Amino acid sequence: MATIKQYSKKDGAKRWMFKTYLGINSVTGKQDTAMRRNFATRREAKAAMERVKVQYQNGELACQQQSNGDLFQEVFDLWKENYEYTVKESTFVKTVEQFKVHVLPEFGHKSMSSITVADVQKFINRKAKTYVKFRDLKIDIARIFEYAITLGIVDSNPAEKISIPRKVEKIDKVERKNYYSRDELKEFLKLCYEQQPFHIFMFFQLLSASGCRRGEILALEWCNVDFENQCIHIKQNLARGKDRRLYLDYPKTRHSKRTISLDLETMKYLDQWRSLQRQEMLKLGFNTLSNKNQLVFANQNNSFIQLSKPRTWMLQNVKKNNLREITVHGFRHTHATLLLEAGIAPKVISERLGHASIQITLDLYSHVTEKMETEVPNVFAKVMRD
After folding, report:
1. Please, what sign has the CA dihedral across residues 286, 291, 293, 296?
2. pLDDT of residue 174
3. Cβ atoms of residues 189 and 209 within 8 Å
4. Could you list the mean pLDDT of each consecutive 10-residue stretch along the chain, which spans 386 residues?
5. Does this chain's domain 70-170 share its CATH topology with 182-371?
6. Helix 134-151 vs helix 72-83: angle between axes, to the nearest 10 degrees?
7. Which of 62, 60, 69 is nearest to 34 (CA)?
8. Is the domain covering 182-371 a CATH 1.10.1740.10 domain?
9. DSSP state at residue 9
10. Pairing of strands 14-24, 231-234
11. FRET label pair with 122: which of 80, 196, 217, 325, CA 20 to 30 Å apart?
């Protein structure tokens, strides 16, 4: 059995490859195959394949049997070249990193044909106990096998035949509440205002008042702060690309591009910070007035602040004042939770958060709706009394 196919390289150039059956290995009793790629034409690929067959028959390929080109790592490298052009750079980087950390150490050195359904099942079962996104790993493995099928390397996809294990619930582990109550948030912001530089307070004030994602705030430019209409326009997101490069990316989804109204106090703080930033940047040699794309939050080089920096700022406050620790994303949860508890309609909150549907909001904040459900009888009784 032989396959000759065309594929695309990373730079978009078209090349040809082949995979062919050579015979049965006299030592292992298994099939020997050969795969080669990077041929300019189909004719070149076919000629090379015929040469390999002759070399095999003459015993000249004995030392090459461990490199038939069908290792999981090799197929992954081919798949990666094409995948890069189908998704955003930040998505590509995250996906490749997930492969490197979880999948390749397990399967990278194995030939595609040797990986069984049982192998994939055991791997996913094990990861289900330690990795929250274990379901994504099944999808990752399936992608490589689908590509291998397209290339004619294998005939089936073992990842599609496994059973997804139920998420392991740790009964003895107390679920951490990743949001602040009203009083906790007020305390955090008060101490932040009193003890930390103003730009740090401003970041968390805006994060809490808007419900934005961290990357959306770090990508915000003054041209998208509307003081007259008391709102901000979310049009971009700070993302990490290859080689840890920071860049401005499109919002996460089309719903993420939105306008968020803000309270008067937050707008006053923003105006105060705009004036203070101008003074600080002038000392560093930057005229923010002449920069139409001036970032609201910038480092000393007037460039992007690292995505990890807000967590450092938060922990400084938390540890110094013995506050309860949440994640930076927890301030987004705090915003939504407080609005739901205040009786704001879920649809309004969903649009404010940039969720693709109201169901996402309801699923994420079920802890609030459950609490509200217990209050319904009392509310109904009050309505009837009045």
Report:
1. positive
2. 46
3. no
4. 80 83 76 81 90 82 54 91 90 95 94 93 95 94 93 89 79 66 96 98 97 96 96 95 88 85 96 97 94 96 96 97 96 91 86 82 66 58 60
5. no
6. 90
7. 69
8. no
9. -
10. unpaired
11. 80
Quote the crossing angle between the two packed helices 117-127 and 134-151, to the nearest 10°: 160
Q: What is the helix (H) or strand (E) element at residue 202, kind and residue range?
A: helix 198-210
DSSP reduced 3-state for 123 = helix
Measured CA to CA in angstroms, residue 95 lies from 91, 141, 320 at distances of 6, 11, 36
Sheet holding 2-8, edge to edge: 2-8, 14-24, 31-39
| Alpha-carbon gap, residue 386 to 167, rounded angstroms | 47
Give phi and psi for 355, each to the nearest 5. -75, 150
Helix (H) or strand (E) holding 315: helix 309-321
In angstroms, rounded to a whole number, what is the distance separating the alpha carbons of residues 149 and 169?
A: 36
Which tokens is 335 given?
């915003």
Residue 5, Cβ density class (10 Å: 0-12 exposed, 13-18 middle, ≥19 buried): middle
User: Do residues 138 and 164 lie in contact, with contact meaning Cβ atoms separated by under 8 Å?
Assistant: yes
Q: Break the chain into its structural domains and give their ranges.
A: 1-69, 70-170, 182-371
- Which of 298, 305, 292, 250 is closest to 273 using CA atoms? 298
205 and 198 Cβ atoms separated by less than 8 Å = no
**Cα 357 to Cα 237: distance, rounded to the nearest angstrom:** 20
The secondary element (H helix, E strand) that includes residue 246 is strand 246-249
Q: CB of 365 within 8 A of CB of 347?
A: no
What pLDDT score was predicted for residue 171? Answer: 38
Given a contact cutoff of 8 angstroms between Cβ atoms, the answer to whether 204 and 192 are in contact is yes
Helix H or strand E encompassing 4: strand 2-8
CATH class, domain 70-170, is mainly alpha
Judged by DSSP in three states, 263 sits in: coil
pTM (predicted TM-score):
0.70
